[in-house]
Amino acid sequence: MCCLLSGVSGAQQQTILVFGDSLSAAYGIPRASGWVNLLQQELQRSHPQYKVVNASISGETTIGGRQRIAQALRQHSPNIVILELGANDGLRGTPIADIESNLSAIIQQSRQGNRKVLLVGIQLPPNYGKNYTDQFKALFSRLAQRHHIELVPFMLENVLPDQFQADNLHPIASAQAQILQTILAKLKPLLKAHNF
Question: CB–CB of 27/88 below 8 Å?
């Protein structure tokens, strides 16, 4: 009987896969303070049928993500994928077309099996030049429109200048709650779509 009850409970479990880089891997701060862990805590209260798996790797690029997304999908069987990649490509000056191609391939694979995808956008510092930074910013909305998926236009919206670590790239622990709220605003419609 216990096994039967466990099976019923397991059937209702929904998985959110966070597939990102250091911005989602809690770089430079305690992992428990990162926005992904805060998301799990929030969902335990509001949507307890969801568990969050953080498959983010510091330093990850879109080509790296493209190479490992299939294994991550097989391993975790997510219902929702939060895709947060591209920052490291941009900081390296990777051609926009290559970044877009890699993200598009990840999105296509992630959407198989009726999965929902939330694309998380990022922006580059102005010292990379207006032309490149504008093109980089635009690629996220273009991908969201093409694949008909939800988009967080800018992950670090409303994070204050003094809420970054010494590298001026990674937010400190006190900024993580704001990041969570920015992402939750676009994630909540996807959660409703998966409610029982």
Answer: no
Yes or no: say if 118 and 148 are a contact pair by the CB < 8 Å rule: no
- Percent of the chain topping pLDDT 90: 90
Count Cβ atoms within 10 A of the Cβ of residue 100 and give its class: 0-12 exposed, 13-18 middle, 19 or more buried: buried
Main-chain dihedrals φ then ψ at residue 190, nearest 5 degrees = -75, -35
Positions in the chain whose pLDDT score sits under 70? 1-11, 193-196
The rounded Cα 36 to chain-centroid distance in angstroms is 9
Q: What percentage of the chain's residues is helix, strand, coil (to nearest 5)?
A: 55, 15, 30
The CATH architecture one would assign to domain 15-193 is 3-Layer(aba) Sandwich (3.40)
pTM value is 0.92
Rounded to whole angstroms, the Cα distance separating 183 from 18 reads: 11
pLDDT digits (tens, 9 = 90+) for 106-141: 999 999 999 999 999 999 999 999 999 999 999 999
Query: What residue segments make up the domains of the chain, in order of their start?
Result: 15-193
Which residues are the active-site residues?
22, 167, 170
Residue 20 contacts residue 45 (beta carbons within 8 Å): no
Q: What residues form DSSP beta bridges with 15? A: 51
Residue with tokens 């191609």: 101
